[in-house]
Write a structure and sequence with these properties.
This protein has two helices and no strands. It is mainly alpha-helical.
């Protein structure tokens, strides 16, 4: 082989190698672009995740506030229920007293009817007025209770 052939062969190898290196540089640039895009997407995703974490913290704070308010309301409701139970118990005892007074009033009215039916005695008339006055008084007391 002569020198020219050898030089041509080397030159051809150099050209092939230059072409291959050029393709590799192009692929490297493409990879760099893809990596830059991936980095940007990762940063955007990190930002979004941070925003979501902040929203989650705010949501947790609001839930805790709601929980505390609910506990306060439950406590107040329990206090009111206990007060209502006391009032209901008092009302029951007052109802019993009123029923007892009503029964006694009926007995007295029966006695008055029996006494006024005979009209034989002045005392019966006085008792009648006393019973009527007592009935009136009981009615007034019952009205205000």
């Amino acid at each position: 082989m002569n020198m020219t052939d050898s030089w041509r062969k080397e030159n051809k190898n150099d050209e092939e190698q230059d072409k291959w290196l050029s393709e590799q540089a192009k692929k490297d640039r493409e990879h760099d672009n893809l990596l830059a895009e991936r980095k940007q997407k990762d940063e955007e995703q990190d930002k979004w995740l941070s925003e979501q974490a902040e929203k989650d913290r705010e949501h947790d704070r609001l839930l805790e506030e709601r929980k505390q308010k609910d506990e306060e309301q439950d406590s107040k409701l329990l206090e009111h229920q206990e007060s209502l139970d006391v009032i209901m118990e008092r009302d029951k005892s007052q109802d019993k007293a009123i029923n007892k007074l009503t029964d006694e009033n009926k007995k007295l009215m029966k006695l008055v009817e029996d006494l006024t039916a005979t009209k034989s005695d002045k005392k019966a008339t006085i008792i009648s007025y006393i019973v009527a006055g007592t009935s009136l008084l009981l009615s007034i007391v019952h009205f205000f209770i």
